[in-house]
Amino acid sequence: MSGTGTSTKVKTPTKQGPPNLKLVCALLSVIAGIAIALIPPPDGLSVQAMHALGIMLGAILFWVFNILPEHVTGILMCTLWVIVGAVPFQKAFAAYSTDTPWLLIPAFAIGIAAQKAGLLKRVALNVMKVFPPTFKGQTLALLSAGTIISPAIPSVTAKAVFASQLTKAIGDRMEYEEKSAGAAGLYAAMYQGFVTMFPLFLTAGIFSIIMRSCLPTEIQAQFTWVNWLWSALPWGIAVFIGSYLAIQFLYKPEQKQELSKEYFITQLKELGPMNRDEKIIAVIVACCLLLWMTEKIHHLTAAQVALLALVALFVFKILSTSDFRTKIPWEMIVFIGGVMALGSVITFLEIDTWMGTVLGPVITPLIGNMFIFAPLLAIAIYLIRFVLVAQSSTVMIFTVMLTPFALQVGVNPWIVGLIILTSANVWTVKYQNTTHIAAMSATGNEFIKQSQAAKMSIAYMLINIIAIVVSLPWWKMLGLIP
Fold first, then answer.
1. What is the pLDDT of residues 197-242, one digit of tens each?
2. What is the DSSP secondary-structure string of 374-415?
3. Is the pTM above the cut of 0.70?
4. Domain residues of the chain, as ranges?
5. How far apart are CA 353 and CA 136, in angstroms?
6. Integer Cα distance of 270 and 190 in angstroms
7. Which residues cross the membrane (predicted)?
8. Is 451 exposed, middle or buried (0-12, 13-18, 19+ CB in 10 A)?
9. How far is CA 23 from CA 2, 29, 60, 122, 147, in A?
10. How far apart are CA 176 and CA 259, in angstroms?
């Protein structure tokens, strides 16, 4: 689940250990949690806060070692908070009453409907047909198509599965052998466009929505759909350009191959004219994007707009009750609600105030110099992702932990959240990213080698740091950093 958030049926294995090792890890996690819970509270913390911290530590270790499914651990954490009297039930489960789950559910539904009707393929083909049929042209086409489609579909895995199959078909038509440089370059361009560019838009990936939900309420209100895009724009431009250049350098084909100019025309003819469902979904998506962009005018929130779109999908019979019941990733919704509670519980028990007092002298000076802190944070997240496999957990936990320190020095915590968001999306080793696993599985695991994909992941790490540093003057101009 760490990189999924999708209804696709592609199986995405996660990192698993031997049963005996998992049992040992579970026992050690429980012991560590109990040990923290029983420590006499230091000045500034209550007994309830220590109990909550012990349960948090145990839950985080359960996520790290993949002891239980992520959503089960999240429910267990919230339930134990209530049982031990750390917080009331309403506080432990408060996240489920926020607008985040109600933005995610209809957003997933829109993606399911668009994929089911074939609209995603039609849009992608229409974008790609305008580019040259060469390797350079088609890698640029995949980057562009993914970026254009991204804001309408929040499930990065749904986009990756669909796009990887399309990419393999293009590679076959260009007569690139499987696991060749040309095939790997096409895959890298697809992944960068349809997956890696998601932080540019609030609605392009569930992790963007998750990160925003971890911020203080007043900061969330500040980052509407347009403000998010405007703030992230330099990062997106730098990553787009850097990705294209890296692909040309890393995956230059040995022979020049061209795609037939008739390929996309033929594919579109096979799709036929837009059917009723595609037309309705296209109108719904266009209306959503328009309303998200104009939130400051009509004052409808992104969640309210998405819920209206969900109702429209049912009214026009685009989405069935069976689709809603079986294709929405409900376990992800439950998991997100559980982990979102970390922020509210930390604030409620004044743990954030205590952290600021104890750790502030060390962390605050670093955050105060973003040209040093930003690259260091990105590198730290890269390393953490080798251990903390769940991408969503990484985004949530570290955004919540670092927000108080950012506020202390006048840095908008959205900046810290974005650095974590972009840095958590790595696939250097296969188990780190289930979106990447799903994309490779959709091509039969024979289109490229993991070592070829890892080269792009490492290149992205460097590109991301450069993009973040390049964005700092822009963020300063916007008043997001002092």
1. 999 999 898 899 889 988 998 999 999 999 999 999 999 999 999 9
2. HHHHHHHHHHHTTT---HHHHHHHHHHHHHHHHHHTT--HHH
3. yes
4. 1-482
5. 52
6. 22
7. 21-39, 45-65, 72-89, 101-119, 184-210, 230-251, 300-320, 332-351, 363-384, 396-421, 457-475
8. exposed
9. 22, 10, 16, 48, 43
10. 10
